[in-house]
Structures are given as C-alpha cells and as structure tokens.
Write a structure and sequence with these properties.
By secondary structure, this protein is mainly beta. Helices cover 2% and strands 43% of the residues. A 9-stranded antiparallel β-sheet has the order 13-14-15-16-30-26-25-20-23.
Amino acid sequence: MDTVLQSICRRLAITTTHAVELEEFTPPAGDTDPIRRFRLSNHQGTSVAVMEQGAALLSVYLTTAAGQPMQVNRGLPTVADYLVNTPYMGATCGRHAGRIAYGRFVAAGTAAQLSRNDGKHHLHGGEAGFSHKRWRATALAMNSTNQAGVRFSYVSAHLEEGYPGELACEVTYRLDAQSRLTLDYRAEVSTQPTLVNLTNHTYWNLGEQDHIGQHQLELSARSVLEFDAHSIPTGRRVPVQGTSLDFTSPAMLGERLRMLARQMPGFDHCYVDLPATGGNVRPVARLQDTVSGNRMVVFSDQPAVVFYTGNYLDGSAAAGGHQQHAALCLECQGYSDAPNHAEFPSPVLNPGEVYTQRTIYQFFPG
C-alpha cells in the first residue's frame, strides 16, 4: 500500500481460484481524478498488480516452496513516482516503441514530424507517450478459461506527439490458473494512416539479488539489428552465432555482461530473425534465476524482442533506487525505426485495419 497517497480497496470479483481487487489513489498536486490499481491473483499464489497510469504492470509476486511471496520484477516505490517514470518501469510504450530517427517518417505519401525526446530522435512515443497517459480500466468477468483480467483503454488524439490520426487503443491483462500473464493489445485508427508498435517495459529480476548476473537467458533469435552510435538501426541484420550476443543456447548474464564491458555498458539490442509465428505466439525467451530457481517463459507473436539490461539505472530516486543491471527488459515488439526502413516489417496502420499483439509471460516458482 502506498503510504503517501490515500487508497480505498475493495474486491470486485472472486472465484475459488482467481480474484480481482481494486485500490483507488488520489494523486498529489491538486489532481482529484483517482488512479486505480488492480490486483489479479490465482490459487497458486501468483499475484499481479496493474494500474491505469501508463497501463503499467506494477508487480508480479510468486509464492516460494516455503510459502513466502517473492517479487520477480523491479519497480518504483509509490504511485506518485509513476507519474514521472523516466525509466518506463512496467509501462505500456507507444504509439511506437523504440527509436525513430530524427522523429521523421512518411506514411501514405505524407511526411510527419514527431516530438524528439531522445536527443535528436524520438523514443517510446515521445515526451508524454502512452507510458505517461491515464488509461481507463474495466475489470473483466471471468471468461471460459477462468482468467481474471483488466482492460485498459485510451484514445490518442490526432497529432498527439506528432502522430497523425485518432487512435483508439486497448491493453488487456489476464492471469490464469497456470500463472500465465497474457497481454493483448488492440488498436484502430479512424482518420488517416499512422504508426503502431506497442510493448511492455517491465524490468524483470526473478530473485532477491540486486544484480541479474546469476540469471540465465535463452533467446530464440539468430540476428540483431546493427545500430549506429545513437542506437538507430543502419538497416543491416548481424548474425549472433559465436558472439557475446548469442543466446540461442542458455547463457549466464554475469559472464556476458563482463564480455561486453569494454564495448558498451550492457545489452540494449533489438533481436530479430525469431522463429516464424504462423500468426500465433511461440516461445521467444526463457529466463531463470539460478539462485532461487524461479523461471519465466516469454511467448509472443511479434517479430522482435528488445533485450535491455537496465544500463542507465543509477540508484537515484527516479530509478526507484535500483542500480545498473538490477533488472532486465524483454520487450516484444516490432523493429526499431521500422517506418524508415522498407526492408523491415511495416508499423503503418491504415483506417479500417486493426492492430493486434499478444505477449504471454508464464511463471514457474523455484
């Protein structure tokens, strides 16, 4: 419970195996519109908290063999901190996650100029992208597979952050009895072509250590996008086989971070050439904390996974007190700077089309 903000907690729905609980927070600085936080839980002792601010995933707890709850992500200490959230902790990023070179693109013959919030470039939707918007939530009735869920909705205005077209978006979180957390995204543009590339930016640490060095990662990608000095893709795919970027077989992150240390502060790479989807989700990543034994498998229908090791976490209050490499992100999404590379999968959404995306995190306590 946030000790700074007032809250009201009540049970919305419950079965023998699942529950949805609601807490309402009155934000500071004269904002009288409550921020609602929801907690999903199942009979295995897995619980997930999500919030309207940024349609964010706040926390995931697993129950250990000893019956104790263990948090397997890292976040910010109070709801008020998520109003700023410079590290994008747990947030939904959009309209276009990742970077767009110089904030420029052309869709249907029309040039657009987006806000530039990363030096000369556009990052994660701009100065106040989806990660910093107040979404509206609806707790969902149990469906045929007995999943507890919450749906967040947001309508992005024409030219918000420079993006053309009015875009209606939804992000739905569901937790089932097998501790699968499913994120379903949906978007439609009403007036003119725009860009859509959504992702979740949760920082994962499956153990109790303050560093991910004892984590083992497997990532089913054969290549990464080559970046320039400003993390903008050149258009070239680089095979990972035989390099420090190769996670096609499980590898310890502490060792790989040491291998990279002379070149860069850590991983911040767009992994591509994943197995074909066939229109469905497939496993793209497996993560295990070798100390606690906690495991997570990531499934997605997206063509890329951005693997980021919290290189710019600096222990400050803005970073939630978390230090560099305290956690990692596995961001399932489209390619970085895709609108400026005809050879990449297109992120353009036209009126009459529907954008959908599904990512699933399944948890296995140690």
